[in-house]
Amino acid sequence: MSAILVIEQLLNGLQSGIMLFLMAAGLTLVFGVMGLINLAHGSLYMVGAFAAAAASAATGSFFLGLVAALIGAAAAGAIIELTVLRRLYARDHLDQVLATFALILIFSEGTRWVFGSFPLFLDIPDLLSGPVTLPGGIQYPLYRLTLILIGLAVAAGLFWLIARTRVGIRIRAGENDREMIAALGVDIDRLYTFVFALGAALAGLAGALVGAIQSVQVGMGEPVLILAFVVIVIGGIGSIKGALIGALLVGLTDTLGSIFLPQLFRLFMDPAAASQIGASLASMAIYVLMAAVLIWKPTGLFGAKA
Amino acid sequence: MKFKSLALSCAIAALAAPAMAEVKVGMITTLSGGGAGLGIDVRDGFMLAIEQSGRDDIEVVIEDDQRKPDVAVQLADKMVQSEKVDVLTGIIWSNLAMAVVPSVTAQGKFYLSPNAGPSQLAGRGCHQNYFNVAWQNDNLHEGAGAHANAKGYSKTFILAPNYPAGKDALTGYKRFYEGDLTGELYTKLGQTDYAAEIAQIRASGADSVFFFLPGGMGISFLKQFADSGIDLPVVGPAFSFDQGILQAVGDAALGVANTSQWSKDLDNPANAAFVASFEQEYGRLPSLYASQGFDTANLLISAIDKADVSDADGFREALRAAEFDSTRGEFKFGPNHHPIQNIYVREVIREGDVLTNKVLGAALEARGDAYAADCKM
Amino acid sequence: MTRESYVNLACLAGLILIPLWAHVSDEPFTITLATRAVILALAALGLNIALGIGGLVSFGHAVFFGIGGYAMGILAHHAQNYTPIAEWPFLIEGTKSMPIIWLLATVVSGIVAFLIGLLSLRTTGVYFIMITLAFGQMLFFFSISWAEYGGEDGLAIYVRNGFPGLNTLVPLQFYGLCLAILLLALAFQWRLAKSPFGLALNAARQVPNRVKAVGLNPFKLQLVAFTISGMITGLAGALFADLNRFVSPTMFSWQLSGEFIVFIIIGGTARLFGPVIGAALFVIIEHVLGGISDYWHIWFGFLLLGIVLFGKGGVIGLLAGGAKAHD
């Protein structure tokens, strides 16, 4: 195993982690501010991907597709926040899980109703296609590098928004004491809708960006949703920093596990059996990681004390 | 009640001809959720053939299994216990077939498989009432292995998901492939990102790649592979290149060789008529799943013409004779009731706006399967 | 009698009369559906001990359902192929006898529930929901790649396992067996809720500090509840596998864990008959809506939303009023 391959795999882990962060950031914000478990977050990811595919098929422009993904997912998020979710903030987690589970059903089959049962086409723009050569002679797809950069930029933007802006102050205040900031004259309903739409837009953006190199199909959001939950639980719910670190940990564990575990078993087993056992363990690796983190720190790496 | 009971028989006609034996067919297939496209194609192909036959003595009951084995089992119970069907068909996925087929054939019903062909049901677990009209699961992969030999590939990298059908796929490929393997990978079922695998392919020094990644997994892999800039020939079974998903893969699929028992440009009259009428009826090009559904229905009709379904032995012989015009041209059953047929190599081409396949030639001729010898019927 | 008691009695009458009616009018499939409802109710009832009384929202109860299923699948698989399960350290043979299968299913589920509980109960709230989900996913992926027992294809058993004195192949007899187990479990849960243990567990959910103050250990109470809960769901898994004569990794899927929660909430959290009514309604809705439209999940989704938003207390809450809501 050459150093180049290892570096390339680290980049792959970084890229999948940073896309997970876009998903997890919205989830953790919504939980931190409103105390809501939103299982339908994966549906917003799917809405983003479908909006991007439809818009770029109609206009021929991937970038217009991205805009459509942001708008479509934010709008879908705002609509469900206004009609359904705001009735659930005061309820216990059980009701929230059930209601958002119902939303998954409605979104998935609704999308299939509108777009049909076959996957849609969404391709990366010519500008970003093909590999580039990095220092050291590593061939790496330009699009994936772009994803890493976009993800880092969004992360920086979020940290800035939370730490330095008036909205950010209100969000942090809302996490700590909802009644107090309402008493101070902040329109808490509007703040909640804004936070939810922001989280939805990030999920939609991730769906569109990732959809271009994957398959835009019904149900694409659910595996990502589970991973995003793993991320925010590892990082500590409500913490954007935790979500970033959790996402990178999960991305790297998943990618590196699927490569190195089979290699490890190949040292003392025949290759076919080694790749099967290695692959089995690799598919469980992130859940083992999550269980281990929670056993060590029951509220995640950066979570507030329960 | 849209699909509850799609009785094609006209009530008056049925009353007028009471002597005609009614045949009741139960179709359990996937019509909702992520894998619905395949089930819809099988159903549409099947119903097209029934409709074209103009018969009023066949009643088809269609139910959605949601791709869940326990739901499929429950529906099979319903078909057998309440609907009292004579023949079952429709299941897409091997794991659902394994859950349903042994129990319904043991209860004396006929099962005609329009898609799944797990090795257990072809070998030791074969049954006289089970007929596979599609392929044994290994067949298309065997064709891919033979194609690799013909092309002179000697350093192939192979990958498939880590589940039984994935292992069967790689086994099938290796059964015919004579060169060396530069890598053999099992990926996670449902995986969507193949960057790590593609990096290993790049580093392996392979001269070709064989993959079996059905559904969305294949779309993701092909798009990412095309973007990686690795310039190696790719071979795969037709599942990742069927008419339904090809448009979603896009130009990344152009020129890729894939193996199939059917193609829309196979030159025989039955196929030409099928493709034209399917497109006219449903406004889209047929996929291989649609062709399999169509063939299944025509096989059934050919048997009904020759024997009464209540005469199980006679009906079985009529099915075994397989005297119908298959969209694949030559078609007959082997000793274990699985097809003996040609496996073709196709290439993905662009026809106007749509991507589709063009037959290059036969990879394997009159191929049966590797398990027939284990079948004691 | 409270109104809830009348609802429960009506439900009980339905459980007995509908299958009898189906038997008389030769509708064996209705009995199959009723059996499915009863078994799913048993699984959800198991969860309800942890969730309803103990307040432990487990999003991974399909783990135990799957373990129960595989206990049946593995034992019966070896019995039907005449291969031993293990030859070392001593010979272990498969079996087609339901009581032995049930024993193994409950014991293994109990051990696994104890271990998962030991680790998971260190966390609370959402973290608990998610760590149980993580264990569910681990077993799901493990079972998919466990080639020896069929992997994703699962294991098909050709003939339903036997119970002494009964012909389990007759739908009504198998139904009766499942119903008897469900009734025993209901009686057990009713006694449990009234017992000192049940009261302490309920208190540990509401005011853990006071429970500590009287010298009880909430962690131990919850661990016992979680273990019992897993055992009952495991037993349901073994029955479910026998109903279908088939096990597969989908029995471990997180969607199924979600459905168990759905049953409880539809019926009414912490209500004795909540899981029964929830599971029965689910099976009926699935059967009726599935026949009407390809897109029935949409309507099911709207129905669920309606129940959560407007039907506090579930169906029993609607019928019987909020006499005994869960806090």
Give a quick summary of the entry.
The complex is a heterotrimer of chains A (306), B (377) and C (327). Chain A is mainly alpha-helical.
Describe this structure in words.
The complex is a heterotrimer of chains A (306), B (377) and C (327). Chain A is mainly α and 306 residues long. Chain A is built from eleven helices and two strands, in the order ααααββααααααα. In chain A, strands 1-2 form a two-stranded antiparallel ribbon. In chain B, α10 links the parallel β10 and β11. Chain B has 377 residues and is an alpha/beta fold. Chain B starts with 5 loop residues before the first strand and ends in a 10-residue tail after the last strand. Chain B folds into two domains: 6-135 and 266-333, Response regulator (Rossmann fold, 3-Layer(aba) Sandwich); 139-260 and 343-374, Response regulator (Rossmann fold). Chain C contains 13 helices and two strands. In chain C, α6 packs across α7 and α10 packs across α11 (274-292). With 327 residues, chain C is an all-alpha fold. Chain C has one domain (3-320): ABC transporter involved in vitamin B12 uptake, BtuC (Orthogonal Bundle). The radius of gyration of chain C is 20 Å and the shape is globular. Chain C has a two-stranded antiparallel sheet. Chain C has helices spanning 3-24, 28-53, 62-81, 98-120, 125-144, 171-194, 196-206, 208-213, 218-244, 254-267, 274-292, 296-310, 314-320, and strands at residues 155-156, 246-247. Classes of the chains: A mainly alpha (306), B alpha/beta (377), C mainly alpha (327). At the A-B interface, α1, α4, α10 and α11 of A face α2, β8, α8, α9 and α10 of B.
Count of helical stretches of chain A: 11
Low-confidence parts of chain A: none
- Bin the strand percentage of chain B: 15-25%
Distance between the termini of chain A: 44 Å
Order of helices and strands of chain B: EHEHEHEHEHEHEHEHEHEHEHHHEEE
Structural class of chain A: mainly alpha
Number of domains of chain B: 2
Overall CATH class of the largest domain in chain B: Alpha Beta
Helix content of chain B: 40-55%
